[in-house]
């Protein structure tokens, strides 16, 4: 009833369907859900836990937790974070109880969310154009392309970021055509903002054949995409350091 409630005047509605599909590990279902009308997307409250749901750290494995968070919080909508989620708390306490046990902070989860919050500060993620991209088979007879969920943000200032995730428990491959005009005639540097991966790719090939992705189970990246000549002053200053240019994209550390 979320769309109906929005039409009746609710500013935001909980996106329980996205949560359920991420929890169930259904990449195709998640991708189809993100194809909904943008007006609905913008007024959906995205969450991985709240007072009615079990703790994310107790529900999702750490390997699954990270891509689920990327796909929840880097798409359009209201980003909803619950107390203790970014610390990796696992005990769900009733809100009627008025107290909860002390829990230790999970340093891996906290470090991941700190990177995620930096990604959320990027101007194009707030004011840019969102586009959900459709993967293609890497070769005939390879069905793993359907496990990929990929989207980008870009703005008029030339900033662009690209999220890619193999949302499955098995390794997968695909090609991802990116029909973005500014890619033409340029070499592009892809710098992972939630990991250490760096790649240089032909913008023309990214537009036509597509960006080749080969990721392990739950593999994911959130790339800053910038022309090579403009990327030298970015977060990762790797010019002249022999950046990796092999065709396969590696999993984030």
Which helices and strands appear, and what pairs or packs with what?
Elements: H1 2-7, E1 13-14, H2 16-24, H3 27-33, H4 38-42, E2 44-46, H5 56-59, H6 62-73, E3 78-79, H7 107-120, H8 123-127, E4 129-133, E5 136-137, E6 148-154, E7 160-166, E8 172-176, E9 187-192, E10 198-202, H9 203-207, E11 211-215, E12 220-227
Parallel strand pairs: 1-2, 2-3
Antiparallel strand pairs: 4-6, 5-8, 6-7, 7-12, 8-11, 9-10, 9-12
List keywords for this structure.
disordered C terminus; 253 residues; alpha+beta; three-stranded parallel sheet; single chain; 9 helices; Immunoglobulin-like
If you had to describe this structure to a student in words, what would you say it looks like?
The strands form 3 sheets. A 6-stranded antiparallel β-sheet has the order 4-6-7-12-9-10. A 3-stranded parallel β-sheet has the order 1-2-3. Residues 235-253 have low confidence and may be disordered. It contains 9 helices and 12 strands. The chain is globular and about 60 Å long. A hairpin with a 5-residue loop joins strand 6 and strand 7 (160-166). The protein starts with a helix and ends in a 26-residue tail after the last strand. Helix 2 runs antiparallel to helix 3 and helix 6 runs parallel beside helix 7. The protein folds into 2 domains: 2-117, no CATH class; 124-230, Golgi alpha-mannosidase II (Immunoglobulin-like), CATH 2.60.40. The chain has 253 residues and is of the alpha+beta class.
């Amino acid at each position: 009833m979320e769309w109906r409630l929005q039409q009746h005047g609710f500013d935001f509605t909980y996106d329980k369907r996205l949560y359920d599909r991420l929890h169930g590990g259904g990449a195709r279902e998640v991708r189809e859900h993100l194809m909904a009308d943008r007006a609905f997307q913008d007024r959906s409250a995205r969450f991985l836990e709240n007072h009615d749901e079990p703790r994310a750290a107790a529900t999702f494995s750490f390997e699954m937790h990270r891509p689920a968070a990327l796909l929840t919080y880097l798409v359009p909508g209201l980003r909803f974070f619950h107390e203790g989620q970014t610390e990796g708390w696992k005990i769900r306490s009733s809100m009627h109880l008025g107290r909860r046990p002390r829990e230790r902070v999970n340093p891996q989860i906290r470090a991941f969310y700190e990177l995620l919050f930096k990604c959320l500060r990027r101007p194009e993620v707030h004011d840019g154009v969102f586009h959900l991209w459709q993967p293609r088979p890497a070769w005939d007879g390879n069905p793993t392309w359907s496990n990929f969920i990929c989207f980008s943000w870009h703005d008029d200032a030339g900033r662009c970021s690209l999220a890619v995730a193999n949302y499955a428990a098995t390794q997968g491959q695909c090609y991802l055509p990116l029909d973005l005009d500014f890619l033409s005639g340029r070499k592009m540097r892809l710098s992972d903002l939630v990991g250490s991966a760096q790649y240089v790719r032909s913008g023309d090939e990214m537009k036509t054949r597509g960006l080749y992705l080969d990721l392990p189970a739950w593999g994911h990246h959130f790339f800053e995409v910038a022309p090579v000549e403009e990327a030298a002053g970015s977060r990762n200053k790797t010019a002249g350091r022999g950046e990796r240019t092999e065709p396969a994209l590696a999993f984030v550390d």
